[in-house]
């Protein structure tokens, strides 16, 4: 048995030695170079948060961006020509969610579809009462479970230009991707331990119910009413607030903020 294991390990080692580089080249379509000075200046202009990040976090973001850009294909839709400026801004905002986490840059995401503005989802929508809406819905972004993310470029620009208004399209869609990494988006992304997961369920369920009641009564607060759609949207919307208005969230929803800080691994209260 031990000999058989050794033979299998030996064969795997030989296969890696022979084909490892080909595999890596296929996984990473291109080797992304570090941003030059002009590209960095453009990114700082488009995303004012970028130069404000502590150096260690900015360095981590640069590394994640290069991995993301090496592997993810950008596809311009309805005639949009994708530029490096677009790729860098999307990658920087997407990887912002990972700068405090110890994991690769979205291994499940393989394509980003960029539209100039809002786009129409032509998939039929199944509404309450058995109504099927086939007119299509105007969207600024959408995250699919099969590794595809759809974004409006104008929406990306707007989100990045206002880093502290509590709304961020790219943070929203990539929070869904983190949630979808385990399968269906449920608003409860994978946690490091069972007690962490149990605490998440309890705190987020209570906060979601509070938010639904407030929204139903017409109260508009820190968290966008869209979060009342379902627990998955609630997590994505609250993630936007966590990254853009961390201090206010920690004051209003300390338990939820604490869980998000543990999950994302950064203290966003310090960014203001
Ligand atoms: Zn959403």
From TrEMBL:
Query: Entry's Pfam families?
Result: Peptidase_M90
Q: Which GO terms describe its molecular function?
A: aminopeptidase activity; metallopeptidase activity
Q: Which superkingdom is the protein from?
A: Bacteria
Sorted alphabetically, which InterPro entries does this protein's record hold?
A: MetalloPept_cat_dom_sf, MtfA_fam, MtfA_N
Give any Gene Ontology cellular component: cytosol
State the protein's name.
Answer: Zinc-dependent peptidase
- Provide the organism lineage as a comma list: Bacteria, Pseudomonadati, Pseudomonadota, Gammaproteobacteria, Enterobacterales
């Amino acid at each position: 048995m031990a000999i058989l294991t050794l033979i299998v390990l030996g064969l795997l080692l030989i296969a890696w030695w022979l084909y490892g580089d080909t595999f890596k080249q296929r996984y990473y379509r291109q080797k992304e170079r570090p941003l030059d000075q002009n590209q960095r200046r453009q990114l700082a202009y488009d995303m004012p948060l970028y130069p404000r990040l502590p150096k260690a976090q900015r360095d981590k973001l640069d590394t994640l961006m290069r991995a993301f850009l090496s592997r993810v294909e950008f596809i311009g839709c309805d005639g949009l020509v994708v530029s490096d400026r677009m790729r860098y801004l999307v990658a920087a905002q997407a990887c912002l969610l990972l700068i405090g986490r110890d994991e690769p840059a979205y291994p499940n995401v393989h394509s980003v579809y960029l539209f100039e503005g809002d786009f129409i989802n032509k998939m039929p929508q199944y509404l309450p009462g058995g109504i099927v809406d086939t007119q299509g819905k105007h969207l600024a972004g959408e995250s699919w479970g099969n590794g595809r993310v759809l974004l409006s470029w104008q929406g990306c620009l707007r989100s990045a230009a206002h880093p502290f208004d509590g709304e961020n399209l790219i943070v929203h869609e990539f929070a869904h991707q983190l949630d979808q990494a385990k399968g269906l988006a449920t608003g409860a992304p994978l946690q490091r331990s069972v007690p962490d997961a149990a605490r998440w369920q309890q705190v987020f369920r209570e906060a979601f119910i509070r938010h639904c009641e407030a929204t139903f009564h017409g109260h508009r607060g820190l968290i966008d009413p869209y979060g009342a759609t379902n627990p998955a949207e609630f997590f994505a919307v609250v993630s936007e607030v966590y990254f853009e208005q961390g201090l206010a969230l920690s004051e209003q929803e300390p338990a939820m903020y604490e869980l998000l800080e543990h999950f994302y691994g950064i203290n966003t209260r310090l960014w203001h």
